[in-house]
Amino acid sequence: MPELTINSGVELRNSRLEIHRFRQRLAIASGVVLFIFVLLFARFFYLQVIQHKHYNTRAEANRISIVPIAPSRGIIVDRNGVPLANNYSAYTLEIVPGRIDDIEALIDDLATVIEITPRDRRRFKRLVEESRGNASLAIRTRVSEEEIAIFAANRYRFPDVEINARLFRQYPQAEMFSHVVGHIGRINQSEVGQLEAEGRYANYRGTEYMGKTGLEQSYETNLHGTTGVEEVEVDSGSRAVRTLTRSAAVSGNNLVLKLDAKLQEAAYRAFGEHRGALVAIDPANGGVLAFVSKPGFDPNLFVDGIDPASWKDLNDSIDRPMVNRALAGTYPPGSTIKPYMALAALTLGKRRPEQGINDPGYFRLGDHTFRDQKVGGHGVVDMYKSIVESCDTYYYQLANDLGIDNISNFLRVFGFGSHTGIDINGESAGILPSQEWKMRRFKQKWYAGETISVGIGQGYNAFTPLQLAQAIAAIASDGVVYRPHIVDYIENSVTRERTTVKSQPLRTLDLKPEHLGVVKQALVGVNREGTGARVFAGAQYVSAGKTGTAQVIAIKSNEKYVESRVAERHRDHSLFVAYAPVDDPKIALAVVVENAGFGARAAAPIARQVLDYYLLGKQPAALNPPQGPR
Amino acid sequence: MTPKIKRAARVLTAHVDAPLLSATLLLMALGLVVIFSGSNQSLPRVASQAFNMLVALGVMYAFANIPPHYLMRIALPLYVLGVLLLVGVALFGDVLHGARRWLYVGVTRIQPSELMKIALPLMLAWYFEHHATTLSTRNYLIATVLLIIPVALIVRQPDLGTAVLISAAGCFTLFLAGMSWRIIVGLATAGLCAIPLVWPMLHDYQRQRILTLFDPAQDPLGSGYHTIQSTIAIGSGGIFGKGWLQGTQTRLDFIPERTTDFIFAVYSEEFGLMGNLLLLVLFLLVIARGAVIAGTAPTPFTRLLAGAITLTFATYAFVNLGMTSGVLPVVGVPLPLISYGGTSLVTICLGLGVLMSIQTHKKLVQS
């Protein structure tokens, strides 16, 4: 302080210099601040004016989520309204696997709260492998109300597990209709590709399942319905806040079948423990009344994804329950081919009805002997007797006289050897042999000897039970061949409008009534006094039928078939075709019972029970199953 | 009676600077409006901030009435106390959200770095006033060390945002005190060279934040998410905004920290470019008034203090607006006078109170 006066001049100068420098610096700093604020404004201008559209779009994309609304699938009912496939609502616990680091740990954790069986785990694993994109997959389905309550109490522990109410497909009749109604299953990658190619994928945005087999598959476009769309405002956690717009889903259309569920049940039960197939057709229009393939499987297993163990069981079973025997199984027709052979002979003028042959019990061609089933033969046999007693020798000779191509051409128009065009997929065409066929198939010439076995329904020819039924129905309807169809009409879910599946005849065969009359009379004779007589004794209606036995393995010409010596799976198939009542046929059917021996023994009783039920309302005798192995 | 009341009023408001107070009140009112929207229309939240504002305005009024030479007296003790507390934090501090920022002192927890925001410019202004007559390069270097000590302690906590703001306040003081351009360039070069040394010392999340700035899309769900969503909010606001309470980014929870650090995204989405212009103008008003006060302040201490407070305020605003609009890294700096939260509000208002004090005690010093 004492120096203050001495240095005051210097200090004043310093002070002025200091103020000047300070103001200079302050001006620079202020300029910089102003410049930065201008830059900030430029940034805001860029974002809010130049890029506004871009950011506005992104804000909208943040906010709006398009949620597809899956339509409820159309239901399937029989001709009397009995449900064969319907929907029910149930809770599921779902996980999006892509969002979880350790799925196993999560499932283990979840299992402490709610029951998760090893089957659920296997099924879930399979779902994960097959799933598309970031799908939400069910770890548990059909969760009970009680379980939901328990889970809800522990909800906080499982932020990644969602409770959903979903519609499930249910097949109340289980295996009885498995091969005709079919089942749905989770949409897989190749089906996604196919839907995309057909331009239908957009309609499947909210759908996880589609028809895989049977009617579920072939009427998929009718059953599925139209997917609705909901525009939902979502928050940052993807939780829906409110609905902006909504266009409702339109339910799929319902299928009403020609099929009679009770008849189907009667037929299924009539098989007892036997494997085989039965197709019953309304001869007046081709409507399928019953369509049995036994054994069946439980289609409900597929609804929420089948577990690998059940899948393996179904595929590895020696009974092959997954094969639709009525549609894709091909069997030699055996003696059921004889009525058509007789008609061919009459039509082509090779035989007259009353013309008799002498049957010594065999037919010889060159040095080859073809045996009749009846040792010593049937004696003198005319056409009527040949069918009623099922004489082989008569048809060995006839086949030899007709030649393979005549046989083939005649049988073809009945539908043998070609697709019937039934309204489910997976049909086999079967084999209708001809010279041309053998050349194409084996690059070999046809031998005359091969024609002989074809005459009694052995040899190369093999037909589906469906074809056998279609053909016998054509006889019943005096030569009108219909396309078999299972669906009667499609009912629009909204308007209730019905679209009938056409039952127009495919063709009318050029047969003379008197020729048909001869054969039909003989078929009546079969059930009255022939091979079917014992089974049809006491029937309160007049029926026409034909037994058949199809060899599974070839028996050498000098050997005799002895059932007990042959392995069960190598035993003959038992066949029967029939229609009734003969003056106004209401039902025509074909039955194949695998490895069950003579036609009259296993197949005919089944036919009798089905006809009794359909025509008289008699329930099959459940306590008196047909005799047979197994 | 009336003249008496008038005189009393004049005495009571003698140290209040009207322009500064008006701009402050306008900004605070804007803040309440935006907090209401950003909190999904929570009135308790608004009420709580209004209470914070009353406290902050009380602090502002109190400091406006403290003459600058009292502040000069407490500058050194306050600085020493602040550094000691920071050392205390480093040794015994409570860890919260992975950072050691809080110190428990008897009844409550305090955040000493907040105190340093005012203590450091005070200290530096005092130091330069003390050596005003004999300033040499040595003084500037000592001042630099005084700056680095607290900043280093805060970086260690770690609290990058506060460290940036405090070192900015210190640097402004040094700059305004007339540090020669040679030293400035030298120190800046040294600072740039130090980046490779400092980089490994940073925490992962700090590094991530800086990297994300250059490419937010690189990590859209992680640290880039904040920037992306706030930028979308601002951009989608357009020229006039979506309207109050109408911001979808706000309402649907897409903007993070909607009432605190990212409150500007809410404001900008709902009020658009025009609203932003208003906000920038209000901030510039505060800054311009501060600059005028600094430019006309009578002593080196008051000049430097006023200048540093003003520039720090500008930095607060710039850093927050920059990070929200995606041009600066996310460093957790609130928007002054707008963001929800009592601490930063009190600190800012304390500074503004000091500005008022410097302005209103001028005549006393001059006379």
Tell me the total number of β-strands of chain A. 23
Distance between the termini of chain A: 127 Å
Largest sheet of chain A: 7 strands, mixed
Largest β-sheet summary of chain B: 3 strands, antiparallel
Overall mean pLDDT score of chain B? 87
User: What is the CA-CA span between the terminal residues of chain B?
Assistant: 31 Å
Major beta sheet, strand line-up of chain B:
1-2-3
CATH architectural type of the domain at 65-257 in chain A: Alpha-Beta Complex
Q: What is the percent of helical residues of chain A?
A: 25-40%
Helix content of chain B: over 70%
Summarize the structure.
Chain A is α+β, with helices and mostly antiparallel strands and 630 residues long. Chain A is built from 21 helices and 23 strands. In chain A, the strands form seven sheets. In chain A, strands 2, 3, 4, 5, 10, 18 and 19 form a seven-stranded mixed β-sheet that branches. A five-stranded antiparallel β-sheet of chain A has the order 12-11-23-22-21, with helices on both faces.
Describe this structure in words.
The complex is a heterodimer of chains A (630) and B (367). By secondary structure, chain A is an alpha+beta fold. Among the domains of chain A are: 2-50; 65-257, Alpha-Beta Complex (Penicillin-binding protein 2a (Domain 2)). Chain A is built from 21 helices and 23 strands. In chain A, the strands form seven sheets. In chain A, strands 2, 3, 4, 5, 10, 18 and 19 form a seven-stranded mixed β-sheet that branches. Chain A has a five-stranded antiparallel β-sheet with strand order 12-11-23-22-21, with helices on both faces. In chain A, strand 2 (76-77) and strand 3 form a beta hairpin. In chain A, helix 13 packs across helix 15 (392-402) and helix 15 (392-402) packs across helix 18 (448-454). Chain A is elongated. Mean pLDDT of chain A is 87; it is low at 1-6 and 622-630. With 367 residues, chain B is mainly alpha-helical. Chain B has two domains: 26-65 and 203-367, no CATH class; 74-202. In chain B, 72% of the residues lie in helices and 4% in strands. Chain B has 15 helices and three strands. Chain B has a three-stranded antiparallel β-sheet with strand order 1-2-3, with helices on one face. In chain B, helix 5 runs parallel beside helix 7, helix 5 (112-130) packs antiparallel against helix 13 (300-324) and helix 7 runs antiparallel to helix 13 (300-324). The longest helix of chain B has 33 residues, at 263-295. The model of chain B has no long low-confidence stretch (mean pLDDT 87). The chains are: A alpha+beta (630), B mainly alpha (367). The interface between A and B is large, with 41 and 46 residues.
